[in-house]
Amino acid sequence: MAVPDALAGLTAIPGVRTAAQLGAAPASDDVLAVLPPLAGLLPGGALRRGTTVSVRGATSLALALLAAATRDGSWAAVTALPELGLAAAAELGVDLERLALVPHPGAELTGVLSALVDGFDLVVLGPVAVESQLARRLAGRVRNRGAVLLTMGPWPGADVELRVSGRRWHGLTPDGYGHLRTREVVATSVGRGAAVRPSSVRLQLPGPGGAVAAGEPRKRRLAEVAG
Fold first, then answer.
1. Closest to 128 measured CA to CA, from 80, 64, 186
2. Which of 15, 33, 145, 188 could be 200's S-S partner, Cβ–Cβ 3.0 to 4.6 Å?
3. Whole-prediction pTM
């Protein structure tokens, strides 16, 4: 399927529109903003246009990366994530008015993904296996279009890889009563090139009210345990 045909097919789906149809002018900035707690994970503290970011371990982190950009007027699309929770996305700060969903791309994944990269600033791809040759071709398209591709899972040649570990829920009493309120995680970033150093940040994902927040400093947590 040719890309223009794929794009036409996407726009025929109820609720799916491209940035061009909506009259959104392409942003001239080279970067897309992220929420302050996430800035320490990315080179320059933002999502650089034309890059591919592999997110491993938490769909919520990928959604949180959309929040600031969609609030600032950018458009995002999510594909191959049929169980995506829109309520959770909204709590994380995503502007749902600027989010398009293609839950089941089917056999035309390549055409669908290419069309989304052509029409949106940010594209989230669910956990699907992609061959190295196809990954390189799609990454080239992302660079040429100035989009940002966020993949759920490994991606050959990703510019940045984010991993989530050390999950720990808070809110229950020692007896097991109460409500789960926040989840503390450690997010680690690894970038390509010797100049990009690995970095880790503690996050509350979700934090109070469902939004992402900075985690408590390790020294403070140790002091509380010692006290």
1. 80
2. 188
3. 0.79
